[in-house]
Design goal:
The protein is of the alpha/beta class. It has helices at residues 7-11, 23-46, 56-76, 90-97, 118-129, 149-172, 179-184, 192-218, 223-228, 285-300, 320-328, 360-370, 387-390, 415-425, 449-459, 482-501, 506-509, 516-526, 532-547, 561-581, 586-601, 603-615, 632-639, 650-675, 681-698, 700-708, 717-731; strands spanning 15-19, 84-88, 104-110, 138-144, 247-252, 269-274, 305-310, 314-315, 337-341, 345-346, 383-386, 463-466, 474-476. The strands form three sheets. It has an eight-stranded mixed sheet, with helices on both faces. It has a three-stranded mixed sheet with strand order 8-13-10. Strands 1-2 form a two-stranded antiparallel ribbon.
Amino acid sequence: MGKEGGGEEALLPLFETKEARFRGAYKVFASTVFVGICLIWVYRLTHIPRAGEQGRWAWIGMFMAELWFGLYWILTQSCRFKVVYNYPFKERLSSRCKDTLPSIDIFLCTADPKKEPPTMVINTILSVMSYNYPPENLSIYLSDDSGSELTFYALLEASSFSKHWIPFCKKFNIQPRSPSAYFAQQIDIQDITYAQELLAIKKLYKEMENRIDSTVEMGEITKEIKDQQKGFSEWNSKVTKQDHQSIVKIMIDGRDKNGVDIYGGRLPMLVYMAREKRPQWPHNFKAGAMNALIRVSSEISNAPFILNLDCDMYANDADTIQEALCFFLDEKRGHEISFVQFPQNYDNITKNDLYACTFSVITNVELAGIDVYGATPYCGTACFHRRESLCGKVYSKDYRKEWNIEDKNNTYKSINELEVASKILASCSFEKETQWGEKMGLIYGCSSEDFVTGLAIQCRGWKSLYYNPNRMAFLGVAPITLNDVLTQQTRWSEGLFQIFLSKYCPFIYGHGKIKLGAQMGYCIYLLWAPCSLPTLYYVIVPPLCLLHGISIFPQVKSPWFLPFAYVIVARNACSIAEALSCGDTLKAWWNWQKMWVIRRTTTHFFAFINTVVRQLGLSKTTFVITGKVVTEDVSKRYEQEIIEFGSSTITFTIIATLAMLNFFSLIGAIKKIVLDLEFKVLDQLILQLSLNLLLVMLNIQVYQALFIRNDKGRIPTSILFKSIVLASLSCLMPII
């Protein structure tokens, strides 16, 4: 490994790993919960109603659901018994490497200028162009899968604005370095020079933003603009989103010492790429775009390390690259690390995380627990990669990469030569009869190409690492309507379940290659979709049994009541403690429970059905982009933490129907106990009544959207009538 300095300083580790506290106590606690779960199974097996008795099959179904819940809980413990956190020493990196830091290629992908506004994309671009890192060692690539001249124009504007923005950021050391994010925050102005330059740079940004927005609104580039940049010659009337030639344009040549900002400072390389798309060729969604970026960047800059980001996920910490390199360049452990995964964080989360988009326990506990096995999953964004491992290299113990020796030197190639060569690499036919998409680059075949790619890399002997810094490294945009949240969840859970049913199932593909704990850790997420079945059963059958007066839980005075009560209380108490320790509020934890039920009974169920249908060969994989454009009234309701429904979809029909079913069951049970004076049944049905009451409380916002609200985000009247009819018919169903 290339390094400067010697002696003891060169041997000091560039990062350390510390184990989280109280894991021993947690193991004892988990053991008691496991005993409780086993006792529940025993109770179900030893108290099955006799043949012919009412509720026999409902009871058997409860056993199957609780068996699944228990086994799934055991699976989750693989990433909780031991949790580790990694801490880099970037000061040591600076003193060791001095002026010989490795080059970094940064990839961003966009696919639709209507759903992913170009102004949002260029804010992310500008934030990574402004890293505190030698600009001559930094190259930024934007993949535009729509092949839109609107996105190209926005990038052209950003390349000009960067000559002002980058020196401003570094002169005043501002954070964050996304212009829109920086200008949106409260800025304390005390220095006159800073105030003057801030007003000037803000004016330049607003002018650029207005030009881009007005052009996007028109939907075309004016002739005046086209005449100023020959790159627009790539677009003609025949170019469409799904049918266009490969386009590669170097907007800023980072090799050119004359390509400088307004103060004479060097600028990083900036490249626009739209890979070729033809209707007769599969394009493999984001995985195909990433693989094209890997090849094109290898021709132009060929940096040994790659950072890939979603187009809406801007850099929030200017020193993130140095922190990530500490892991790769560590003398003892760095050579075995393939990628460093950062958490996905968002800058538009409400105080109580209305839609539970932060996954705080997952990012702070579960992923840190999987990191124990050196098998942190690749999540598709906010991830630094070692180029060699991403390109299919198998790890060997004697591997030592001299990162300061470039594999390819393109210093003397002209921009035109690089662009021509790169277009070939971005063509449809280039991958034909190659290992791309199988053993090289991202794996093709499912919509969760990131997860399966990370698994494949780890099975080649590499290790991955999870790093959750104190200052969030990247901030994206979370969906702010329930429909967008659930659409995103359907795509994720469907792709993950596809992996489980494919040859890449961790228990099969990873057997003997990664540790059993890592295999189990992966399956926590791969099995989101089938978890919908027992959840749906638990949300539907117990309320119906309650309505019919059928007891499916032990009486309060029975000793079998204790394991049920203990497991319920202990697991929820632990869940609350984890959420609070991760910085959530109590209401945020409650919102997580609410969204957990909604996701499992709708999107995860759809994902399960879609995956099974696809396995039967009756449909093909599709990719739906989550919209980033919303109206002002939707944003206002989101800030007030009011759930946005608004549309008549089958998803909302299911949500409303399940809510009404539980409401009817609760009313029926209360009537039977209070009005009919059947207090003796209370002892038999207390657990069912408690479960039913809990589900009703979780659905309070659904009832408000059905009966009280009159804004555009309420549940449509048509769904109200459908849900009442369907819930009423369900209440008439006999329980066998």
